[in-house]
Amino acid sequence: MIHTLSQAQEAIALLKKLIAIPSFSKQEDKTGDCIANFLEEKGIPFQRVKNNIWATNKYFDSQKPTILLNSHHDTVKPNASYTLDPFDPIEKDGKLYGLGSNDAGGCLVSLIATFLHFYEKANLKYNFVLATTAEEEISGREGLEMIIPQLPPIDFAIVGEPTQMQMAVAEKGLLVVDCITRGKAGHAARNEGENAIYKAMRDIEWIRNYEFPEISEMLGPIKMTVTIIQAGSQHNVVPDTCTFTVDVRTTDKYSNEDVLLVLKNGLLSEVNARSVRLKPSSIPLNHPIVEAGKSLGLTTYGSPTTSDQALLDVPSLKMGPGDSARSHSADEFIYLEEIEKGIERYIEILEKIV
Q: Are 83 and 330 in contact (CB under 8 A)?
């Protein structure tokens, strides 16, 4: 416990430095520098591409399987309801306040501490790769996705996101679809034209009521929500186009491509997916890391939110200190105790298998 306490103190000190540096998505260069400096001071060689930094354990052996420890250092912008300085790491009543403290700074520094714990250990059954990455908050292409081809082959991953240190063994994917319904312009005072809004209403009602027959055991049903709609230019003109956007949370029962095909077949509108790359992800319930967590009393669940797990093609477990309910909230914070216990639990679960 004493050892974990010192690890937590060092991790919290690093987190305070990171909070004090603005690191909005695509602007993470300074937090990248901070993490690089931290590793340099520890004498740990690392590689960097843009704002992504990764390192391997000292006794890395290409003949052994490899565990990826990943979390992100970019943040969203602070919302208008902040009462505190989002870049002032205030410690008060057992909490550390600051933008990115909960999402996902606490997870990031806890995984860094975990990597340091195993870094110099010889004769491990697994290698470790630590990857601190960018652009997670915008699902950008210059974050984890950019460096995956340059990492050693990964057997499974722990992705640090605030889950109260419970195990998210599955995560919904994300498919954002833009739809265009076309009609014919006309004067609103006369019975002419073809109203694109009315045509879109049929499709929106279909989306609202359609149920995919296969339901995931861990993630439940696919959820489709119309979130944006735009049409018309002035009150007396029948609109000839109506565009609307659908947020689709996919599950392991269907590929994103399959879901897109269902939409194209079911809608009258033109259907265009922004991307199919944010896939649902999961890890088998009998995987050694999940079994190790269960033996420590951790629970498993399916997560409705999307993270960098969506970019991995290997089994992955989403787990970290903090609470996702605090993410992106005003006066964001993490309990200091959560970081200490997070490091302790990461180490406990990994020591059972490595």
A: yes
